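Q: How do we represent a protein-ligand complex in a form that can be generated token by token?
A: Start from the inputs.
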Amino acid sequence: MAKKIIATGYGDPADVLAVTDVDVPSPGPTDVVVAVRAAGLNPYDVKLVRGVMGTKPEKLPLSLGAEVAGVVHAAGAESGYRAGDEVVVYPAAAALAEYVLADADRVHRKPADLGFAEASSLLLAGVTAVDTLATLGVTGDDVLLVHGGAGAVGSIVVSEAVAAGATVIATASDRNHDHLRESGAVPVAYGEGLAEAITEARDGKRVTGVIDTVGTDEAIDVSLDLVAPHRIVSVAAWGRVDDGIVVVDGSSEQSRHHRRAAVEPLLEDAASGRITVDIARTFGFDDAAEAFDELLGAHPRGKYVFEPK
Ligand SMILES: NC(=O)c1ccc[n+]([C@@H]2O[C@H](COP(=O)([O-])OP(=O)(O)OC[C@H]3O[C@@H](n4cnc5c(N)ncnc54)[C@H](OP(=O)(O)O)[C@@H]3O)[C@@H](O)[C@H]2O)c1
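Then emit the structure tokens for the protein with NAP bound:
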């Protein structure tokens, strides 16, 4: 038997998260069973548990966790993998567990130079960041405003846009401004005075595009004063689609294409150190509810990583 985290209902993680015993999965011919070393926690997992994405009773109990890194435990004859291979699974299902079953087309070889924790927490945010940049078509000529530039998605947006030569202005809490400066962005504080702070930061230049990873009305309103709606690409402002902004989530063919194409380059860039994945906290079966609780609030910069021991 093996352990797995589930949600038995929708609501406060402390009330609904549970650890259950399940059989270790057996692989079909094209499947791989991975012994989990680390799994990345994402806001999506927390929103799922809290019922933000819907509260259908028939979906209970919920399995959680969409990305994982580990070691192949058993592999189907047609999977192309062997026991002992170090891999990353993305997109994964039910990753907050000791073992994960995945079709081989979702399995990627983990670069030897990339740690398990970092590998487990790179791809969901990374492919999303690359999708926003590709959708907006960011080039070195752009003056880009990034809302949430110190978050998991935002920090990869910032580093890729800076690497492309763009001028980047990014919002974050004061405690993250040094990090943004080190990444090559001009930091601004969100909240009261945001519009004035952006005016000062752009220093007479015209903002040519916006990537929003926050989704607040404040972020969208200030952006609509700077650029045409189609130059605003968001991953979170679902309530503002009627304003003509572009929201991406991997559901369109173009968005899927951007995300698929981003996986291998992201793994290479993280292994070479061109992209860094900072870890804020690791947690296990016993303190999962606490980690879930922290992630949607004001939390330290970096990823929350599940380690099943
Ligand atoms: N559509 C998609 O495909 C997709 C994919 C991945 C994620 N997402 C969504 O994208 C969002 C970000 O995900 P993430 O993994 O990057 O989360 P994260 O690492 O927790 O980052 C959240 C960021 O939001 C900033 N923030 C918090 N409150 C804010 C406010 N009121 N105004 C401005 N910024 C604020 C934080 O800044 P400070 O810490 O500096 O305060 C932090 O940088 C989530 O809503 C997630 O569900 C969507």
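The chain has a mean pLDDT of 98. The radius of gyration is 20 Å.
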